Amino acid sequence: MSKKFSVNLVILLALNLLIKPIYLFGVEVGVQNAVGAEQYGLFYAMFNFTFLFNVLLDLGMNNYQKIKVAQHAEIGMQNMTTLLPLKLVMSGVYMIVTIIAALIIGFEAEYWFFIGWIMVNQILSTYLLLLRANLAGLQLFVRDSILSIADRLILTLGVGYLLIFGTEDFKIETFVLFQTASYVIAILFALGLLPSGSRFFKFNFSVREARSMVRKTWPFALLILLMTAYHKLDGIMIERLSPNGLLEAGIYAQAFRILDAGNNFAFLYAGLLLPMFAKLFVDDFDSIKSLVDQAARLLIIPAGIALILILFYGNWFMKLLYVEHALEASLSLKWLMGSFVWMAVSYVYGTLITASEKMTTLNWIAFATVILNVVLNWIYIPQLGAQGAAMASFISLGFMALSQIVFCQKRYSTLSLSWISKAVLVWCATAGIATVIMILGIEDVFAFAITAVLSAVVFSLIAFDFQQLMETLKSKSAQ
Question: Considering the entire predicted model, what is its pTM?
Answer without folding.
Answer: 0.73
